[in-house]
Each structure stands twice: as C-alpha cells, then as structure tokens.
Write a structure and sequence with these properties.
Blueprint: H1 3-17, H2 23-33, H3 37-53, E1 81-86, E2 92-98, E3 105-110, H4 118-129, E4 132-137, H5 152-160, H6 164-181, E5 187-191, H7 194-205, E6 210-213, E7 231-237, H8 241-244, H9 247-257, E8 261-266, H10 283-300
Parallel strand pairs: 3-4, 3-5, 5-6, 6-7, 7-8
Antiparallel strand pairs: 1-2, 2-4
Helix pairs in contact: 1-2, 1-3, 2-3, 2-5, 6-7
C-alpha cells in the first residue's frame, strides 16, 4: 500500500470513528480499496485507539456575526468550462477551466479523494473571480472521468488503486497546460486533503514552474525533501491531529532550502473544514483561510 493509499484508508477509518460512516459502510469502502476483512477491522480498531489517546485541542468561540453567509469567494466566482488537453503517454486529460477577466497569475486546483466534484469546480471559479486563471485536473480521466462513477465511494476506491507517479505526471501536465493558457504569469497550486498531499508531492518531486503553493491539510510525504523552492502557505485544522502530525516534517523541509513559508492552523476546525458541502465545514475558519490564501497569492503570484 502506497502512502496515499494508506492515507485514503485511514481517512475512511477516521470518518467511521467520528461517526460519519457506519461500521458496515466503512468496511465496505475499505474492501473497495482492496483491504481484506481482517486488515480493515484492524485499521478501524487502530484509528479508534489513536483517537482515544489524542488530547482535545483548545477551542475558540466565534460570534455569529463573524460567520459568513456564503462560502468564501463564491460571491465573485466565475463559471468553469469542461476542457480536455494532452496528457502523458498520449493520454487525454479532462479538467475544469476557469478564465479570469484579466489574469494576474494561474492556479492549479487539486481535488480531494472524491475526484473532480462540483465543489472543486467552484473553487476554480472562485480563483478566477479574484484574478487567477484556474485549472482543476480530473485525476480519473483515464477511467472516463469522475462523472462516470456511480457513487463517491467508487471514485475514491479507484483513486486509491492508482500509482502516485501517474498523479504527479498528470498534474505536471496540468501545470504545463495552465502555463500555456496563462503566458508570462506566475503559477501556484492549491490542493485539498488528498490533493493537499499531492501538492506536497509536486513540490518534493520537483515542479519548478510553481512559484507558490497552498496545500490544505495535506500529509507531507514520509522522508520528503523540497525539490521546488516555492513560497508555501500550509493550512491545517487544529482538530485534525492525524494530518497535523506531519507538519513538523514539512516545516523542517521548507527551512532546509530556505523557502518562504507560513503555517495557518485554524482553531476549532477539523480535517476538510474548507469544504462547504461536507459535514466538517467550519465557515469562519474557511473564510480566514481563503483570505490568507488570497493574500499569499497576491504577494507571490505577481
């Protein structure tokens, strides 16, 4: 099992521990990933034990007036269009494209382990609305695209069985396509959950076209070292102890190459707190994170 496959499996187990999935559904999804029943049961027990041993982080209160009425960036979001472009090895990649009226840079948007959903398309549109061309690659393109899967769990299982080398190659092709569509401008990458981990992989495997990156609660690769000196704003949720555990390694790797970086740990927010279609959405934390991302790109994608 690759690190990304393990991450997806642990995410399913964590969803069960936190009451978002029944035991039966968690076991079904782990089976779709290829885990046998004994391994799946062991994983659920291990995640439950780890959750029981974790201290509860301090929380902060937020006034009702501070909570935005709409998801951050959505009021100025622009529409996306489905496109295709040449990928590695003669493959055709699918993506959502959002063009800014007067682009000042470009952002590659990397989806969660559910594939290219309407939520991810909306984020591409939000970036276009604030002046950045945005491209969200469907990492299930070779399988016919995310839309061809009958359920979310099936798309997740398919992603969990693919080699991370293919993800990196497809995303680097996406960076090249974004550069072609945004000539002469700096490029960044923003990924969420699984996509946050892939953002780190782009930086540790070497993607020199990236001037900046903002991974949201993505696991830093074991033993990873930065190969791209991009300006990184890494975003975490204070309640997300599983992913937060990789933060010291990320900071050490950034310090080692002298890359500009900052870390935002959203108080009283859990994993996937930015996803306004999910059960862990935290509006105030999402608004603060979006503001920090837009400020970061205004500084490093100019």
């Amino acid at each position: 099992m690759t690190p990304l496959q393990r991450y997806i499996a642990e995410e399913i187990a964590t969803d069960h521990v936190e009451g978002l999935l029944s035991r039966r559904e968690a076991l079904r999804r782990l089976g779709m990933l290829g885990l046998g029943a004994p391994a799946a049961v062991t994983l659920l027990a291990a995640c439950a034990d780890k959750a029981g041993d974790s201290p509860t982080p301090p929380t902060t209160s937020t006034s009702a007036a501070a909570v935005p009425a709409t998801p951050p960036g959505s009021s100025t979001a622009l529409p996306t269009s489905p496109i295709t472009f040449p990928g590695p090895d003669g493959r055709t990649l699918q993506a959502a494209w959002a063009a800014a009226a007067q682009p000042r840079g470009g952002v590659l948007v990397i989806h969660e382990n559910r594939g290219l959903t309407d939520h991810i398309r909306s984020i591409a549109g939000r970036f276009a609305g604030i002046g950045y061309n945005a491209l969200a690659v469907d990492l299930l393109s070779e399988e016919g695209g995310t839309a061809g899967f009958s359920e979310e769990a099936a798309a997740t299982a398919a992603l969990g069985k693919l080699p991370q080398e293919r993800f990196i190659a497809d995303l680097q092709a996406g960076v090249a396509e974004l550069a072609q569509r945004t000539p002469g401008k700096k490029l960044g990458a923003t990924g969420f959950c699984f996509g946050g981990g892939l953002t780190w992989l782009l930086l540790t495997t070497g993607t020199p076209q990236l001037a900046a990156a903002t991974p949201f609660y993505g696991p830093f690769p074991d033993g990873g070292e930065m190969a791209t000196k991009a300006a990184v704003l890494a975003i975490y949720g204070a309640l997300d102890s599983r992913v937060d555990a990789s933060r010291p390694a990320a900071e050490a790797a950034l310090n080692k190459i002298g890359a500009e970086h900052d870390f935002f740990v959203a108080p009283n927010a859990d994993h996937a707190f930015f996803n306004d279609t999910g059960p862990r959405y935290a509006p105030a934390a999402a608004a603060e994170a979006w503001q920090r991302v837009t400020d970061w790109y205004a500084r490093y994608l100019v």
